[in-house]
Structure formats: C-alpha cells, structure tokens
Input
Amino acid sequence: MADMRAFREAIGDWACGGSGEAARELAARLDVRTAVLLEGPSDHAAVEALAARRGRDLAAEGVCVVPMGGAMSVARYTGLLGPPGLGLRLTGLCDEREQPFYDRALDRAGAPRQGFFVCVADLEDELIRALGTERIEEILRAEGDLRSWETFVRQPAQHGRTRQRQLRRFLGTKKGRKIRYGRLLVEALEPGRAPAPLDALLASL
Output
C-alpha cells in the first residue's frame, strides 16, 4: 500500500530529526495501530513474505512494518512510535545479543516487552536452520548464485566454518542479496516450518 510506504518514509524523516507532523497525520488517516520494529530491510522482506503466504494484508490491518536501519536505533523508534509518541502498539524481532538494548528502550518508552521475539543469531540464521543447508544450496542454484557460492566457500577465511555459518556470511556479501533472500527463503518454507520467532511475531499481529 503506497500510503503505508509514505508513512514509513515519514517515520524515517522524523527519526532523522524532522518535525513528525507528516507521520502523525498519516498515522491518523491510515488508522495505524501497530508498528513492527525490525533491524533492517531483509527482515522486512521476510515478514512481508510470510504475511503474504498466510493471506495477510498487514497495511490494511493497520500494521506498519518498520526497518529501523540497525538495532541501535531502537530507543529512538520506541520513543517516537510507542507511548511517548504516537502511542502505537510495538512489536518486532531482535537478535539475542541485542536484546538488552531492546529491553532498556522498551522500559524507557513505557512499552511492554512481550511483543518482541528473539532470534538466536539473526533471522537469516533462523531461516537457514529451518530450511537446512542442502535446501538453501538448491535455492542458490535456482537463483543463479551457485557459482558465486562455490567460489566463496573456497576462500581461506571460510575454511573450518560450518556450512550454516558460511551461508549466513554469504548472504551478506553483496548489496541487496540479504533482502532478496529474505523473501526467497520464506517462500521456500514448508507449511508449518517457519522459524519460531517469525511465526510468533505473525501470530501476534
């Protein structure tokens, strides 16, 4: 939905020091009730893909998925979108190592913690474990990335690493690849096999 994209852009402008007037106006006009806070665009792609697979139109439900541009921005976004700002219900995903930052930000904003679901390493790692490395390599082949992958794993820095760690690193080696595979990996999941944090997030919306 174009208007929800405009709202997301207005939030970004507000987070960078803008007045917030456009975000407030759009939130009221679109009847936005929930903000899903995610670290970046690859997580956004995965959440939207799973919602689509389940027949959900999050924008029509008053849910805005917000990539924050990094976990360290969570305090800013919880302040703008939570009780001190727009008063939206906050939910989202975070990585285990960054959970303390989220907990502090939510406490400071007066927002509950229970809407946030924790990935052990990150969402890509959760998706790789859910699909298995052989299935991921099949997807790489189908997408024309197998030769790049085979070259990558021959690099000295990858020797001794597990296939799972190699795949996780490979997805982040080229601009745009994590975003593209965030969607593709979700679309490849068998029914009922979504990673627990992602599944719980969608169920909570």
The CA atoms of residues 3 and 29 lie 9 Å apart. The beta strands are 34-38, 63-67, 89-95, 116-119.
